[in-house]
Amino acid sequence: MKNVLYICIGALLAALAFSSCNDGIDIRQDYDFSLSSWYLQKQIATGETVEIRFYLDREGDYEKAEYEIGYIQMEGKGEVSDSEGIKLVNREVRPLTEVPGLDTENPVKQVFTLFYRSTSARRSELKFFVRDNFGREREMTVTFDLESTTAKE
């Protein structure tokens, strides 16, 4: 009787083990990602430079994934540069790996810093975007109101 019980339990375990096997290998290359930033000030004066620290959070790590960054100046006028003072060109993209100071220690959370300097006496609005080599694109809008002179007094 014990032998029959052991055979039944063994057959049940074998059936469960073999029925859950899947010969298909699931290999993902195009992981989703998001673009966010650290706290940003709300107001900027003409000629003032502000730091914008970005976080690129990826759902997974695929070593052949490549990212590009760009921006569009929607309102106002200004300049975007990296930590070495190299200016990014409005409406053009640049490989993210070329941004100095790109922190790649954590492969799924990359941190980098850009700087914006306002050159106009009006509100500034910029749309930053990051795209990967799989066609995904994420945007982040940054707005700086003009700092009034009465607020300084």
UniProtKB/TrEMBL annotation:
The record lists the membrane-crossing segments as none
Q: Which residues form the signal peptide?
A: 1-23
Which residues are in coiled coils?
none
Write out the entry's keywords from A to Z: Signal
One Pfam entry for this protein is TraQ_transposon
InterPro entries documented for this protein: TraQ_bacteroidetes (IPR024355), TraQ_sf (IPR038707)
Task: Specify the domain of life of the species encoding this protein.
Answer: Bacteria
Supply the name of the protein: DUF3872 domain-containing protein
Query: Which species is the source of this protein?
Result: Phocaeicola sartorii
Q: What is the lineage of its organism?
A: Bacteria, Pseudomonadati, Bacteroidota, Bacteroidia, Bacteroidales
